[in-house]
Design goal:
The chain is mainly α. It folds into two domains: 65 residues, Winged helix-like DNA-binding domain superfamily/Winged helix DNA-binding domain (Arc Repressor Mutant, subunit A), CATH 1.10.10; 41 residues. Helices cover 81% and strands 0% of the residues. It contains six helices and no strands. The chain is elongated, with a radius of gyration of 20 Å.
Length: 113
């Protein structure tokens, strides 16, 4: 499976789009770190079935990100927000600070369109 952090982020953004069954199995594998055998036993399906479902769900979550770019947008806006915070802490000149805030605010607004 992919990096657990990446899987967690994908699930945080798009997990609600999965069926309850998919969510339960994905959470067991990613968040509870259960083995395929443990999940298969608790769900009453084969180990191969769990493996295939996890692979399918991971591909589906990645496809959502490829189409919707929510994580990418979130990361960009987070970066711009940090830029605003840095400008507020380091600005000595009010005019420079104002320009930085306006430029960053406009970039955020443009990204939200």
């Amino acid at each position: 499976m992919e990096n657990k952090l990446e899987q967690g982020r994908l699930y945080d953004f798009y997990g609600e789009l999965l069926t309850p069954h998919q969510r339960r199995i994905y959470e067991s594998a990613v968040y509870e770190d259960l083995s395929l055998a443990e999940i298969a036993e608790s769900e009453g399906i084969s180990r191969q079935g769990v493996h295939d479902l996890l692979k399918r769900v991971t591909a589906t979550l990645k496809q959502y990100e490829e189409k919707l770019h929510m994580i990418e947008r979130f990361d960009r806006i987070t970066g711009m927000t940090k830029k605003l915070a840095d400008a507020a802490q380091t600005a000595d000149d009010p005019a420079t600070f104002r320009e930085e805030v306006l430029a960053t605010a406009n970039a955020i607004l443009k990204d939200m369109e």
